[in-house]
Write a structure and sequence with these properties.
Order of helices and strands of chain B: HHEEEHEEHEEHEEHEHEEHEHHHHHH
Number of strands of chain B: 13
Largest interface: A-B, 34 and 30 residues
Number of helices of chain B: 14
Oligomer: heterodimer
Bound molecules: adenosine-5'-triphosphate, magnesium ion
Number of strands of chain A: 10
Radius of gyration of chain B: 29 Å
Strand order of the largest sheet of chain A: 6-7-8-3-9-10
Structural class of chain A: alpha/beta
Helix content of chain A: 25-40%
Distance between the termini of chain B: 33 Å
Largest sheet of chain A: 6 strands, mixed
Structural class of chain B: alpha+beta
Helix content of chain B: 40-55%
Number of domains of chain B: 2
Strand content of chain A: 25-35%
Largest sheet of chain B: 11 strands, mixed
Distance between the termini of chain A: 17 Å
Chain lengths: 225, 389
């Protein structure tokens, strides 16, 4: 059985009394442990929505999600928190860094609930920032960083606690080819160390070395090669 | 370890938003300072003794008269003094009296008890036909040492509905120092015998102040009661009760007004802290998405509020300390004492106890927590992506 499984997941947003947007319709898929998968599809097809549900930060309107042997929809708030803290790292399409907080602090915040002390947090944050090629920007705040730099800070934050599952929403869309390749190399390395990596991208150009590609169109899974 | 880390992050959060933090603290200080000032003042008033002559009496004995406090034979003082455990029993005459339309407290004490008042006044102690007056009264009536003071002592007849008042003229022999206390501001101190003469209560006094050896108050009170079932024994002086009643009535109005202000303050605070509400919500969403639990997020917000409350209440206590000690309670004392128009003619008593600080802190915390904890909790239990959109 797959490590991550979606069973007939639907997500709808109610805009008004009569208007309902169905962002995802009956999406079922399975993702193996230690694999790298890509979710593609045109803008508005539901990639972010699917990624958020897989990352446990959004609740599906219908359907079930399993991670390992746990059914996520049935977990309590604190159980989901434990799951996120140990297993999941997310890079948002809009990065979502905390404003006016230095890069290294942004990166280190996921370690706080794990009980890691200030010094150790800083040390590890600098380590992962170096990994994404940003060691010279660790004291900059998000306002002082370029889009691509913000994205890499967000990646550093997502990997600092060494999660089992790494989700990246459009990780290559804000950065130049060279940096994108650096990021992808990093992801391949992480994959080799046994982590499951889920990416989304509206064009799959750069991202070639994936085990599977899922294609979404208007919220439906049209291709699961 | 984790708690300390969260505390550090809370501090960092406050520093990250310097203008918001400053505004919130400022608003709290503005709301809190009058409250603490009034509180410290009422506390001081409560704790302040009438004059040193009266300080520290443990019991006051009067006699029941139609179910109220009535006059008591003067010689009872000697009988009480002979009780084992009693150090001293002082007969006193106390009355409220109008002096040219102004309410004052008349206090008659035996000569030997008046001696101790000597160091807190200018001029001389009152001998027969003389009075010592409080600073407030002296100012209102423009009295100086040596002036004459005419006291309307008693209603002798009512002619066509208007009372005919018997007057007696006294010489002002001394005036209390302005820094003595609020009590002596409207006080007229007189010898016991003069007071008894004024009221024609030969052989009787208003009450007997009893000074008891430490730890024996209850025992002595029981013995006094056994002497006569009609004795009424109280542990606070009548004068204090008079003055306190006037104060607490105004204090009550003040408290009411204040509760109203506090209730208003909550939405104001919510508005002020809501300036960054959207940003705060996003932060909570980010923290939740990156593995923080709801409790940890709440803990962070709680710490922030504690720091703010600590800061705001200390500043408020400091400000009101300055207000009272340096500005002598200007503009606030009028709320309590109608007769004062600008600056009080006496030192406003005040006391900044642990209670005051604690109350200030609690009020601060209350006002800030009411809004923030609930909204934070609501945000924290919402799926993060919904918050972050
Ligand atoms: N909160 C919301 N309320 C209403 N509609 C929403 C909401 N979030 C997403 N949608 C809609 O759901 C659909 C899928 O959105 P989603 O963000 O998942 O697309 P996407 O594939 O990530 O697009 P892009 O490539 O532009 O990032 C879109 O049509 C969007 O308008
Ligand atoms: Mg998207």
């Amino acid at each position: 059985m797959s490590y991550i499984r979606c069973e007939k997941i639907c997500k709808s947003f109610r805009l008004s009394r009569h208007e309902v947007i169905e962002a995802l319709r009956d999406v079922s898929l399975g993702i193996e442990r230690g694999s790298m998968v890509l979710i593609t599809g045109p803008s508005g097809s539901g990639k972010t929505t699917l990624l958020s549900i897989l990352g446990t930060i959004e609740r599906p309107s219908k359907g079930r999600l399993f991670i390992g042997d746990r059914e996520v929809n049935r977990l309590s708030d604190s159980a989901i928190t434990r799951l996120r803290r140990s297993t999941i790292g997310i890079v948002f399409q809009e990065f979502n860094l905390i404003p006016r907080l230095s890069a290294w602090e942004n990166v280190s915040y996921p370690l706080v609930p794990l009980g890691v002390g200030h010094r150790e947090r800083r040390r590890r944050a600098l380590e992962v920032l170096e990994l994404v090629g940003l060691s010279n920007r660790c004291h900059h705040t998000p306002e002082q960083l370029s889009g691509g730099e913000k994205q890499r800070v967000a990646i550093a934050r997502a990997i600092i606690h060494e999660p089992e599952i790494l989700l990246l929403d459009e990780p290559t869309s804000n950065i130049d080819r060279e940096t994108a390749l650096l990021v992808l190399k990093l992801l391949t390395e992480m994959k080799t160390s046994g982590r499951t990596i889920i990416l989304s991208s509206h064009d799959g150009d750069l991202i070639t070395e994936v085990d599977r590609t899922f294609r979404l169109e208007e919220g439906k899974l049209v291709d699961g090669s | 370890m984790k708690h300390l880390e969260i505390l550090l992050i809370s501090m960092k959060n406050l520093l990250r938003h310097p203008s918001r933090t400053t505004i919130v603290v400022f608003c709290l200080v503005v709301i809190l300072t009058p409250f603490i000032t009034a509180l410290a003042m009422l506390e001081g008033v409560r704790g302040d003794a009438l004059v040193s002559v009266e300080e520290g009496a443990d019991l006051y004995v009067t006699m029941d008269m139609y179910g109220r406090n009535g006059i008591i034979p003067q010689e009872v003082a000697d009988e009480i003094e002979s009780i084992d455990g009693v150090r001293k029993a002082v007969p006193r005459v106390i009355s409220r009296i109008y002096v040219e339309g102004k309410l004052a407290v008349l206090l008659g004490l035996p000569r030997e008890e008046i001696q101790t008042a000597g160091k807190i006044m200018e001029g001389a102690l009152p001998s027969e036909g003389e009075v010592v007056v409080g600073r407030g009264l002296a100012q209102a009536l423009q009295l100086k040492v040596g002036s004459n003071l005419s006291l309307g002592v008693r209603v002798i007849a009512i002619v066509q509905h208007s009372p005919q008042i018997m007057k007696r003229v006294f010489r002002v022999s001394g005036i209390f120092h302005p820094d003595t206390s609020i009590w002596s501001s409207d006080l007229i101190l007189i010898s016991l015998q003069d007071a008894i003469d004024i009221y024609e209560m030969e052989g009787f006094v208003s009450d007997i102040a009893v000074f008891v050896e430490p730890g024996r108050v209850t025992e002595v009170a029981e013995k006094i009661q056994q002497m006569n079932a009609y004795f009424r024994i109280q542990s606070k002086s009548l004068t204090r009760q008079y003055v306190k009643r006037a104060y607490s009535r105004k204090g009550g109005v003040f408290t009411l007004l204040y509760i109203f202000a506090l209730v208003l303050a909550i939405p104001v605070m919510a508005l002020v802290s809501g300036v960054g509400l959207r940003e705060r919500k996003r932060e909570v969403g980010i923290l939740k998405a990156t593995g923080w639990s709801t409790e940890e997020v709440l803990q962070m917000v709680l710490y922030e509020n504690c720091i703010i409350a600590l800061l705001a209440s200390s500043i408020s206590v400091l400000t009101s300390y300055i207000w009272l000690k340096v500005l002598n309670g200007a503009f606030l004392i009028q709320v309590f004492i109608a007769e004062i128009t600008h600056i009080a003619p006496f030192r406003i008593p005040s006391r900044f106890g642990f209670d005051t600080m604690f109350l200030a802190l609690t009020v601060c915390l209350g006002v800030t927590l009411v809004g923030s904890l609930y909204t934070t909790w609501r945000t924290a239990v919402t799926p993060p992506q919904e918050v972050l959109r």
